[in-house]
Design brief:
Length: 406
C-alpha cells in the first residue's frame, strides 16, 4: 500500500491554501509538483557543485560532470536503453521532437510520407508540418472514432515504402487515452521501413518504459511532468540512427574538431547537446527517477488508476456531464464538459475560487477539439500525491459550477 501522507509530506507546495481553500492540484498533465528530494538535489548542485560540465579539469567541473553523467545512467536504466549515449538531455518533449524532425531533414524526400495521429499535442504536429514544408513530404493522420480511439485500419491502408516516419503519443494529454503503440509499431515494422517516434510526455510519468521492448527508434518525454524541474527532458534514440542523422544545434561541446573549413562532430550523445546544458535540472531529473522508483511503478499506477476510476464514477453522476473518451482505455486524465456551458474556462474559474487547479481550453490539441466540435474541455489530471478526498472536492465543485452557470 501507498503511504499517501508520507508522499504528500514530500510536496510542501500542496500544503497551502489557494483563495482561502486547501489547494487541490489537478493540473499534473501540464506539470507535476516537485518532491523535496528533487528540490534538495537542485539546491545541493547550486550550493555545492555549480560548474560547467565536460570542459574543466578543476574539481567542481569534474564533480558536476560526474553527477550529470550519473543521472544519464539512471535515466538509461529507467527507460531500459541499451547504451547511456542513446540518452540525450533536452529541455522537454517539444525540443526533443523538433530535434528529431530537424535532424531527419536530409533523409526525407518529396512525396515521402509521415504519419501522425489525430490525438497528438501540437508539438507532435507542427515540427512534422515544418519538415514537410522543407522537404515536400506529406503528412497523414490516423483518424479517431467518437470515443477518441485510433482507427488502426488506416495503417493497413496507408503504410508503404513511402512512409518514412510514424510519430504518435503513448498517452493523449487532452483525453488520457492510452494508445496501442505495440500494435502501431508492429504494423509499421511489418509494412514499411519507417522510423518510429513515441511521444512519451504523458506516459513516462505513469508507466514503466522499456524502449528496447517497445522497439521504437525514438522516445521523447519531459522531466517536469514527472516530478523533475522545468526545462528538463529526454530524447532517447537508437544508436544506429543517432549516428546517421545530422545534429540539431551547432556550437560548443558538439564538435570533435572545428576549423573555418570544416567541423567534425563529437561522439554521442554530445553531438546533440550543443552549449551549456541545464546541469542542475538534469541532475535533479535523476532524483525524480529515484523518487518514482522508490514508490515503484506498480504502486504508482494502481493508485492513479484507482483515482481515475473514482473520479469517473463520481463525475458521471452529474447530469449533463460528458467525459470525452469515456469508453477508451485511459490513464491519469479525465476531460469533460457540462451540457449548455460552452466555455470550459468559466468552470475552471469557479473551481479555482474553490482552490481546485484544473486546466481548461484546447490543451494544445486543437484538432481533437475540432473533431468533437467544441472549443475546449475541463481537464483534471492526477499524480501520485492526489487523494480520493480531493476528488470529492472536485465533484462538489463541478456541481456548484453547474448550478452557478446553468
Ligand atoms: N506531448 C504531449 C503528449 C504533451 O502532453 C505535452 C505537454 C508535450 C508534448 C509538450 O511537452 P513540453 O514539456 O515540451 O511542453 N502537454 C501539456 C499539457 O497537456 N498541458 O500543458 C502542457
Amino acid at each position: 500500500m501507498l503511504d499517501l501522507q508520507h508522499i504528500r509530506n514530500q510536496f510542501p507546495i500542496l500544503n497551502q491554501q489557494v483563495n482561502g481553500k486547501p489547494l487541490v492540484y489537478f493540473d499534473n498533465a501540464a506539470t507535476s509538483q516537485k518532491p523535496l528530494s528533487v528540490m534538495n538535489s537542485w539546491e545541493k548542485y547550486y550550493s555545492e557543485i555549480n560548474a560547467n560540465v565536460h570542459r574543466g579539469i578543476h574539481t567542481l567541473s569534474q564533480l558536476a560532470t560526474e553527477e550529470m553523467e550519473l543521472s544519464r545512467r539512471k535515466i538509461q536504466k529507467f527507460i531500459n536503453a541499451k547504451n547511456d549515449f542513446e540518452v540525450i538531455f533536452t529541455k522537454g518533449t517539444t525540443e526533443g521532437i523538433n530535434l528529431i524532425a530537424y535532424s531527419l531533414t536530409n533523409l526525407i524526400k518529396e512525396n515521402d510520407e509521415i504519419i501522425i495521429s489525430y490525438l497528438e499535442h501540437h508539438s507532435n504536429i507542427v515540427p512534422w508540418q515544418m519538415l514537410c514544408e522543407r522537404t515536400g513530404a506529406k503528412l497523414k493522420v490516423i483518424p479517431i472514432d467518437e470515443n477518441g480511439i485510433l482507427q488502426l485500419d488506416f495503417l493497413d491502408k496507408n503504410l508503404s515504402e513511402k512512409t518514412k516516419i510514424v510519430s504518435v503519443n503513448q498517452v493523449s494529454n487532452a483525453l488520457g487515452i492510452v494508445n496501442p503503440i505495440d500494435e502501431i509499431i508492429a504494423k509499421t515494422r511489418a509494412n514499411s521501413n519507417a522510423m518510429i517516434v513515441i511521444d512519451g510526455a504523458q506516459s513516462a510519468p505513469h508507466f514503466k518504459i522499456d524502449v528496447q521492448k517497445i522497439d521504437c527508434d525514438f522516445f521523447v518525454f519531459s522531466g517536469h511532468k514527472m516530478y523533475a524541474p522545468m526545462a528538463t527532458g529526454i530524447l532517447y534514440g537508437k544508436e544506429e540512427i543517432l549516428r546517421k542523422i545530422q545534429p540539431f544545434h551547432g556550437g560548443g561541446e558538439m564538435i570533435a574538431t572545428c576549423t573555418f573549413e570544416k567541423t567534425t562532430y563529437a561522439d554521442l550523445p554530445f553531438k546533440f547537446e550543443a552549449g551549456t546544458p541545464n546541469v542542475g535540472g538534469n541532475i535533479a531529473l535523476g532524483a525524480a527517477v529515484d523518487f518514482i522508483e522508490n514508490i515503484s511503478h506498480e504502486h504508482l499506477q494502481n493508485h492513479e488508476n484507482a483515482l481515475l476510476d473514482y473520479a469517473q464514477k463520481q463525475l458521471l453522476q452529474i447530469e449533463g456531464l460528458k467525459i470525452y473518451g469515456e469508453n477508451a482505455h485511459r490513464t491519469g486524465v479525465v476531460s469533460f464538459n457540462l451540457e449548455g456551458i460552452g466555455i470550459s474556462s468559466d468552470v475552471g474559474m469557479i473551481l479555482d475560487k474553490l482552490g481546485i487547479a484544473v486546466r481548461t481550453g484546447h490543451h494544445c490539441t486543437q484538432p481533437i477539439m475540432n473533431f468533437f466540435n467544441i472549443a475546449g474541455t475541463v481537464r483534471a489530471s492526477f499524480a501520485v500525491y492526489n487523494t480520493f478526498e480531493e476528488i470529492d472536492i472536485l465533484f462538489e465543485g463541478v456541481k456548484k459550477a453547474q448550478k452557478m452557470l446553468g
